[in-house]
Amino acid sequence: MTQETKRTTGAELLKIQPDWAQAIIVAQWHENESDAMTDYFNHKTTREVVLAWSRHTRDLFPEMRTAAARFEPTAHLGPKMGDFSVSVNLANDFMSGGTACWAGDRSPWHRETLGSDANFSTREEAEAWIAQAPELRPMNDGQNGENVVRFEYRITEQSVEHREKWSMGHGYYLKHGYTHSTGWAVKKSGFWLLGSRRDQTIEEIVTVQPAESARSRTSFSAVEIAYNADQKGVELRFPTRPSEDVRDRLKAQGWQWSRFSGCWYTRDTSEARVFAEAIVAELRVQ
In terms of residue numbers, what domain contains 152? Predict the structure, then answer.
């Protein structure tokens, strides 16, 4: 599958809005305009891309991540992706010139040795980097021969799923960094966004698929949710076998496969309903 962007306007996008769509998922390029000296914190949006139409208005990160994966500049915000960094930390407590240093603190001797090369989008990439990284040799802090300092590599994850539903917050969105940092953000928006950009340039993702991929998309659009009142359960039926990733996520949430009924099922709860609707929404935008 390949993607390209089509330059259009908010008014033109409103004309092609599907009847079933209730919201859109967009990618925005933010440029930081903050000035700490004047206590001013803000950013401006210089590029906007419509990634997908949504059938509902709920802020579901799985749906946003699936849409983010369709656009190469935001693929680092897709499913199973994150913000992982490797640091060198102290492995033991020690005293240095009367100052106590504790295990787990960042090493003051290795601040410049990692740089931007130690930032990754998956934990597996970070672990692979550590596996081939130079050995961290113990050292003496220079005070006496017995004060040996040991080091270790550590992986730290900073969530890309931001939840800011409070006054002056920016809602739910995916982004590396923080609210006003420079970079791509992915979020859900109402059609008011297109209305406010009626005469402004907005880009739309155009998906080009081979015939076999189109058939897969059609079959996945027929995923059904059923609520079994007699058994007090929720059921998901797929027209074809779901991917290994979807099956793993179902199992992790406590869903079970019924060969007799031909469905995945679990106890009917509000959490189960939201999860099921998120799975269906993801497959529909693929």
Answer: 84-157
